[in-house]
């Protein structure tokens, strides 16, 4: 069983709707009207959970941004998925440069290798993964000369909807790393 700690926010949380076309392409619509920069997770809750954990995967939300220093203080390793960050939006920087493992999609990056190197140079990441859909992904680990290309596995049938593919990739990558797999 996995314990759940509910922390309701007075205004609710962000909402997203994905519209998927017949060709499998999607359009994601986000409603940020319920999300505020002042949103916080209770400090005591974060400290308690961090004290019982070795790793935290944080979403790129205001409450998680405020939790990052507490997680680092507790010695918990942190991972994040920057999703379709363009490598320039300052909102993502605290997550990009403050996490030990960083995932990002190549979809909005002009130069994925330069962005991966930038995350390494400015941050604390031991590894950066850039996912590239059907092209596979790229892994840059600290001390490596450059990113390693990891080709995608051919699907056994047609891809009808890629929603959740990045989350599944992140879960598999983190499971491997946190159970001792090397880069």
UniProtKB/TrEMBL annotation:
InterPro entries with a match to the protein in the record: Carboh/pur_kinase_PfkB_CS, PfkB_dom, Ribokinase-like
Cited Gene3D superfamilies: 3.40.1190.20
Positions of transmembrane segments: none
Span of domain Carbohydrate kinase PfkB: 105-182
One Gene Ontology MF term: kinase activity
Protein origin, superkingdom: Bacteria
Keywords, sorted A to Z: Kinase, Transferase
Protein name, UniProt field: Adenosine kinase
Organism (species): Streptomyces sp. SID7499
Biological classification of the source: Bacteria, Bacillati, Actinomycetota, Actinomycetes, Kitasatosporales
